[in-house]
Amino acid sequence: MSATSSPAQLLKQYFGYDQFRPLQAEIIERVLQKRDVLVLMPTGGGKSICYQLPALAQPGLAIVVSPLIALMKDQVEALRANGVPAAYLNSSLSGGEQTQIERNCTDGITKLLYVSPEKLSSPNFINWLKTLPISLFAIDEAHCISAWGHDFRPEYAQLKALKQYFPGVPLIALTATADKLIRHDIVAQLDLNDPEIFISSFDRKNLSLRVRPGRNRLGQILDFLEKHPNQPGIIYCMSRSSTEDIADKLYKSGYKASCYHAGLPTADRSATQEAFLRDDIQIICATIAFGMGIDKSNIRWVMHYNLPKNLESFYQEIGRAGRDGLPAKTVLFYSFRDVMNWRDMFAQNPTDRQELQIARLDRMQQYAEAHLCRRRILLNYFSEESVTDCGNCDVCRNPRTHFDGTVLAQKALSAAIRLQESVNMSTLIDVLRGSRSRAIVEKGYDKIKTYGAGADLKADEWREYLTQMVNTGVLDVAYHDKYAIHRGVLAQKVLNGAHQVWLVKPEDRIEMKPSEETRKPRKQALEEALFNHLVEVRKQLADQHNVPPYIIFNDNTVREIARQRPANRAELINISGVVQQKVAVYGDAFLKALREFVQSQGGGSTAMRGSTYQFTYELYEQGFPVEQIAQQRNLGIGTIQGHLVWLLENGYNIDWQQFAQPHEIQAIQQAIPRLENPSPKNLFVHFGEKYDYLKIRLALSFFRKEQGGYLLPA
Ligand code: ADP
Ligand code: ZN
Questions:
Q1: 59 burial type by CB count under 10 A (0-12 exposed, 13-18 middle, 19+ buried)
Q2: Which terminus has fewer CB within 10 Å in the chain: N or C?
Q3: What is the fold, at CATH topology level, of the domain defined by 522-649?
Q4: What is the fold, at CATH topology level, of the domain defined by 402-504?
Q5: This prediction's pTM
Q6: pLDDT in tens, 628-665
Q7: How far apart are the CA of 374 and the centre of ligand 2, in A?
Q8: Residue nearest atom 27 of ligand 1, based on CA coordinates
Q9: Using omega within 30 degrees of 0 as the cis cutoff, is the peptide bond preceding 514 cis?
């Protein structure tokens, strides 16, 4: 690095980016002026560059405090892949390794040294640091210093001494926690000297927000996965057992899913995490124990199987998706049951903050039940002004249908009153719908006047509407009295007809309208196919070099490569996210893959006329059998079979019955849940080569459509 390079030049040289994100340039400038700063940016906002770049722009060694070994390892790996001399010191290293790293620091080779907070409280270490030219201290995850936060680390308290030992060295504290109280705490605890505080917007525009009713959750998840093949994601669950259960079911449905919770042995947990980072596992079903320190930039979706207990946790967890800035999806499943479970849990473990806990849970519930733009609710919660609808949440995309529900409300109220305000929501629904269950008949509930008055609605619909009535004060839930449904404050007026009740029709589809997944124009389909191919190349390279794929290039960069199709190294380095070091190590492999792809299109030049799928489709339409398509295109039969399945899955008109009988598909599908790893090859062997690969691939493709279902397309 030359002393004369500007921050912008260093940004391109070491990170491959052409522009700073908002606030990055100002923060860097301030650190270079040796000022203390506090940086508040959401996860994925781009905090790291705020201290990594000043470290590269000046002489000396930057010390970075990071709370987790996994996090340090990840960051150092990413920096080294970009050609930045970085290292970490922690308890996982051998004595010999430590000595070598220390020598590189004293020799002035290393520019960034990552350490644990414990390390910085050791007097020997401090004394050693005093002998070195320290350029800056960066305190990552700085909220860990605050006892008010959710990740309090007592070791962080020792960091206060840094300002005494190194008064002239600038200190930069960074966190994604926006809380005001915590902000003040960080400044005080670290003894920051007249710090400038930078607060970036917490809006993550690339994250779509959506809430779904917590019914048939597994079916909804499978439906979603079907539409987002191979995209890595996390499913957060409330209990350890449900993480195991869901992972197991997804696995049996043919997905690479695994569970993660604090009750599992450490070795298993790190193996799972590592496999996820490397894209060997697609889906992690986890408790909140999973996530902090996951720097994986290509998490494409996050789901909440259960309601989180507050919006802070929720926002942190969804924030792990889409760190590369590409679109990512979030889905929250909401059921009132979860609210009750949290309330019970708070009641069982009373603390002095119980009221606060409940108030925060209320806000979470309001978010889940809202019929207003969800992002506005979130941003307002985090004290950020937001006056326009976002266009990227389910409410904005599917404006709700309101209807006059006064009669429904009267029926519900009348039933609740006749039942002495003593039954919970489920029983009330049974009575309204005229259930003949024993519990209802034995108690004589079938004798009351409103019994069966609401038989025209499904139980789920009633649940939805009753919940809305609770939220608007028509009904009330007696939490202290077995959740019995009582009259709400508006009950009398509703019964008199003096108050009209507006209800909102529930949504019934998981996909947003207009769906981004609807058919893509050809050019886009081609780019998509090339992207997928390059992702495979990246994975092979990652395995060869023993690093997670996103360390090589993040998804955004791979997308750009697919879009621009660089023909040589010089064109490759111009792409955002590509640095010299990576061109040297991986460039040729990507360029070769691009050339081969172009050739496989049948076009000799860089101009691609149509996607490889399109060519196969055209030949198929002309009536050629698979073998001849393969011959004409100079591709393997397996490849053509794969194309046909892809075409079918992407809405092209492929008559699959030409290739397999429905009963054959069913026979294969019955074996899928029974095999530990139902890959095409294993199924082929399982049936003693009775069914060809195309039949097996079709069976697998249809199988995922429904949980364990033997579904055939119409
Ligand atoms: P945080 O630590 O705030 O969660 P990171 O520092 O890990 O976020 O950055 C998130 C992602 O954004 C990374 O993939 C990083 O390379 C990328 N990024 C950061 N700054 C820029 C920039 N100026 N231009 C493009 N991408 C950037
Ligand atoms: Zn919105």
A1: exposed
A2: C
A3: DNA polymerase; domain 1 (1.10.150)
A4: Arc Repressor Mutant, subunit A (1.10.10)
A5: 0.70
A6: 888 877 777 888 888 888 888 776 778 888 899 888 98
A7: 5
A8: 46
A9: yes
